[in-house]
Amino acid sequence: MKRIILLSVTLTFLTILSCCKKDAVRGIYNSGKATMGAGTVYSWVNFDKNSNPLSFGLTLNDAALTNLPVSNNNNSGHNHHNSIELTLPSEANLITPFNHIVIDWNPDGHEPKPIYAAPHFDFHFYMMTSADRKKIPSYAQDSTGFSNRPSSEYFPPNYFNPPLVVSSDPQMGTHWVDANSPELQPGGVFTETFVYGSFNGKVNFIEPMITYDFFKNITEWSRTIPQPAKVQLSGYYPTKLSISHLNGEYILSLEDLIYREAN
After folding, report:
1. Three-state DSSP class for 246?
2. What is the pLDDT of residues 32-44, one digit of tens each?
3. Strand 168-169 to 159-160 pairing
4. Whole-angstrom Cα distance, residue 211 to residue 206?
5. How far apart are alpha carbons 110 and 163 in whole angstroms?
6. In angstroms, how far is CA 29 from the centroid of its own chain?
7. How far apart (Å, rounded) are the C-alpha atoms in residues 10 and 18?
8. Separation between Cα atoms, residue 121 and residue 103, nearest integer Å
9. Alpha carbon distance, N-terminus to C-terminus of the chain
10. Phi then psi for 7, rounded to 5 degrees?
11. Tens digits of per-residue pLDDT, 111-162?
12. Residue 165 in 3-state DSSP?
């Protein structure tokens, strides 16, 4: 009888604990706000009533697109002079492989030019800690980590790595681009594209790259996110990117999440 009572109490406790955990991850959880331009930006993660993750991303107000630097001073981009780092809410860290976000504003574009010369944002979602990311050297200092590429199944089909000297950046990694992107076709123009990144044998970021003009004029827009055959970290991954503009705010959302096991 004592065993039955003890088992009943234990099961009741576990049920309550489980309910508490579910209650703790219902709805939207935000990070602290950071200054961007004349406005603010923050990250968030959204769960449904059953604690299933729905989406994560960032929200910036209209003022964030004003009073941005007009030049990065060296005309090369990717120099972190105009970067904003956002932590992801801890609830997002628990269920996705993503650790933090860095928004890079490139008023003069960056290499390879003229393809990516237009003023644009790089929204990096990193799968490594900020401390480890900041240890990534420049290609000139040490090319070893950039040359150590993950195998092709960890990138979507048709993705390739441009010459390392132009695609490798300190505190980022090396960039992989979609050969089918419109800007890479004859006569194509860059408005938005989706980039993957790697360093030292690991896929370490995904990156929506969007021109200022395209972003500013969005009302409602979405695209699919190209998927690799394999992933190196288990967790929920986004399959869709959407951006909306409503009530003075732009919402960049990574959504339609699917759980994937590392392999």
Report:
1. strand
2. 999 999 999 999 9
3. unpaired
4. 17
5. 14
6. 17
7. 12
8. 7
9. 47
10. -65, -40
11. 999 999 999 999 999 999 999 999 999 999 999 999 999 999 999 999 999 9
12. helix
31 contacts 43 by C-beta, under 8 angstroms: yes
Lookup result for tokens 């009073």: 67
Cα separation, 148 vs 156, whole angstroms = 18
Locus of tokens 């970290």? 233
Residues 6+ apart with CB under 8 A from 209: 116, 120, 121, 122, 123, 192, 193, 194, 195
Residue 131, sorted as left (phi over 0), alpha (psi -120 to 50) or beta, turns out to be: alpha
CB 78 within 8 Å of CB 104: yes
Q: What is the pTM of this model?
A: 0.89
CB of 68 closer than 8 Å to CB of 120: no
76-90, 111-125, 156-170: segment of lowest average pLDDT: 76-90
Contact present, 154 and 230 (Cβ < 8 Å): yes
What does the alpha-carbon distance between residue 43 and residue 108 come to, in Å, rounded to a whole number? 26
Cβ–Cβ under 8 Å, residues 212 and 118: yes
Q: How far is CA 82 from CA 68, 73, 76, in A?
A: 9, 10, 12
- Distances from the Cα of 199 to the Cα of 40, 55, 144, 164, 224, angstroms: 30, 26, 9, 11, 24
On whether the CB atoms of residues 204 and 210 are closer than 8 A, the answer is no
Contact 72, 106 (CB under 8 A): yes
Contact by Cβ (8 Å): 92, 186:
no
Closest CA to 57 of 250, 260, 262, 224: 250
